[in-house]
Specification:
The chain contains 4 helices and 13 strands. It is mainly beta and about 290 residues long.
Length: about 290
């Protein structure tokens, strides 16, 4: 005979830690979303940071991937990959925000830069400035609100977890103005710009899903995918430019942005050289 839960959802026969951390933790996300409606205590536990981290660690052993074609195809089924299932997102699947794969994107997603991944969520930043968030587990696909206007033709975003709050955050940089001009003597380049930086919290609170300005970065951030670690984003930034034309030399630094106090600290490039070429990139090695 199956034990009947009390009014608060707990059972007289099975301890709560067994129910949540040995039974429910084995279920996929779609089931957990439904079970939040059982009672307030179940919802609180399922949304608790400890349970979420435990559930993520359990499912890390299961390999999965998301395939995102770089061009639009009406019939994605004709492109088959052995062992890969293709899904298309239909209106009405998302309850978090407005779905975007409809009349506003009749030819599919705009050209995008490097997707960012964190705990099963995938952020897809497009070169047009639009950003899309995908949860493959629940098959939700939403578009984030537009940020501040960027006069530059290209930009990058950061995406990660703030361990202090347990919330996922997106950061983006933008230019209010930007220009490179020759010095009066023709021997160098004058860099003039006004740069901004803002963050968005993915949550169900009043301040969530809104861009909030932070302090301006001390240097112009490059259009280069950053390193995203728990609590910190690492941007490549342009410190100075000397010379011009084929003799132009750029000097770069690394800006570390803290999600805790929303401040920047400046760090030198690796000792190999003081600049990053178009073929160089920042990367994470084992969370370090």
């Amino acid at each position: 005979m199956t034990p009947v839960p009390d009014s608060d959802g707990s059972s007289n026969h099975i301890p709560d830690d067994i129910i949540f951390f040995q039974i429910l933790v084995l279920l996929p996300v779609k089931c957990l979303v439904r079970f939040q409606s059982v009672c307030k205590s179940w919802r609180a536990t399922i949304l608790n940071t400890q349970f979420i981290r435990y559930h993520l660690e359990h499912f890390r052993t299961r390999l999965s991937m998301v395939v995102m074609p770089r061009r639009y195809e009406e019939d994605h089924k004709k492109f088959g990959l052995e062992g890969v299932t293709f899904y298309s997102f239909q209106p009405g699947q998302s309850k978090v925000a407005e779905l975007i794969l409809d009349k506003r994107c009749p030819r599919g997603m705009p050209v995008f830069s490097m997707p960012l991944y964190c705990d099963g969520l995938i952020l897809i930043p497009c070169t047009t400035g639009r950003m899309f968030l995908c949860n493959p587990a629940t098959r939700e696909f939403v578009e984030l609100p537009r940020g501040s206007r960027n006069v530059a033709g290209d930009h990058r975003v950061a995406f990660g977890l703030d361990p202090c709050t347990g919330k996922y955050k997106v950061a983006r940089h933008f230019f209010r103005s930007y220009s490179e001009t020759l010095q009066a003597d023709g021997e160098g380049t004058v860099l003039e710009y006004s740069a901004g930086h803002e963050i968005l919290t993915i949550d169900d609170g009043l301040d969530a899903w809104k861009w909030k300005a932070t302090i301006d970065p001390p240097y112009a951030i490059n259009a280069r995918t950053p390193i995203c670690l728990p609590g910190f984003f690492y941007w490549s930034a342009l410190r100075s430019i000397t010379g011009h034309g084929i003799n132009k030399v750029s000097s770069h630094v690394i800006l570390r942005f803290s999600l805790h106090d929303e401040t920047f600290t400046v760090h030198p490039n690796p000792p190999c050289r003081s600049f990053l070429s178009n073929n160089d990139t920042l990367c994470e090695l084992g969370g370090l």
